[in-house]
Amino acid sequence: MIDYLQSQKQEMIHLLETIVNIDSNSYDKDGVDQVGALLKDKFEEIGMHVKVHRQAEQGNHLEIKAERESEPKILIVAHMDTVFPKGEAEKRPFSIIGDKAYGPGVNDEKASHVQVLYAMKALKESGSPAISNVHIIFNSDEEIGSVSSKALIEEAAAEKDYSLIVECGRPNDGVVTSRKGVGHFTMNVQGKSAHSGVEPEIGVSAIEELSHKVIRLQKLNDYDHGLTVNVGLIKGGTSVNTVPPHAEAEIDVRIKNKDQGMNVTKSINEIASEETVEGTRTELTGSISRPPMERTEGTGKLFQTIQETGKELGFSIHEVSTGGGSDAAFTASKGIPTIDGMGPIGEFSHSETEEYTDLNSLVDRTLLLAKTIERLSE
């Protein structure tokens, strides 16, 4: 496998360039479907079965197995969408500086597309039966919460023994064993407008009410225990000389465990329901949309297997925790041992200039993925 993948490195980089230079924002269905069509062709070329789950608004999802009716025990999940707008690839196309590849979505997570494909090619080339033990999902909407693909991922996860999520690997051979859960809430406050100079006393300021709520929301933060509540966007009012009749806040929540999620949701609802400025009314929408990926005993054993596999290959695999959410949450919440960050190594995802993938890790991480699949299939 090592010799085969080394011989394919330039071909892998060329495919990475092709995929990075295709815009695939979550809301750019044509772009995501172009990536999906390319991947479908590549997997079918090596004899794998690809089922396309067509979507009306976002891009189509791909479901891939070695045989149509097989029942693999390892689930691999990757996403094809990025956060970058249409036109970004033309503005700053794929480039290589030293050992690093740059471009929109190169690290999050187009390098992983190449990795998964070539891990399957390496298994096939070596004659390993482990290729039949893999069930792959490429989804199109991870960056916007996996709204349409969540059910597909959870269905695919049923009866699986392991889940490997190929978000980017962390520097110095890191993989992810726990992630925070993610919530998004919107607080909409209604007041009453009035001329601020002529008759301000008959107005009711929605912005004043929202200001009291924002202060209380920010006080919910408990960094020591991994809970963050961030009021990231606010807007309101109609003009500078009008008592504002409406105001809105968007709130990002990150939780370390399920109990935190229940407690913080209760607190946010209480803040929304309690009125400080008489005459205002507040509507709250939203929820914890992505559960936390908690480190379990099963995850610990799976990590140990990956660490031992890495050691045999000369890698010093270590585990990390992160505050970002991913599709790993959906498999972990079903009790399936899950490891994330199995993709090629890089940093600065979502950055307009600094996001990169370490090309030295492209072959290494592909080899690690293939050998891990082999070892888990024994």
From TrEMBL:
InterPro entries: ArgE/DapE_CS, Bact_exopeptidase_dim_dom, Pept_M20_glutamate_carboxypep, Peptidase_M20, Peptidase_M20_dimer, Peptidase_M20A
Pfam families: M20_dimer (PF07687), Peptidase_M20 (PF01546)
Domain of life: Bacteria
Record's keyword terms, sorted: Hydrolase, Metal-binding, Zinc
Protein name: Acetylornithine deacetylase/Succinyl-diaminopimelate desuccinylase
Cofactor(s) this protein requires: Zn(2+)
Domain Peptidase M20 dimerisation, residue spans: 178-279
PROSITE patterns: ARGE_DAPE_CPG2_1
Database matches in PANTHER family: ACETYLORNITHINE DEACETYLASE, BLL0789 PROTEIN
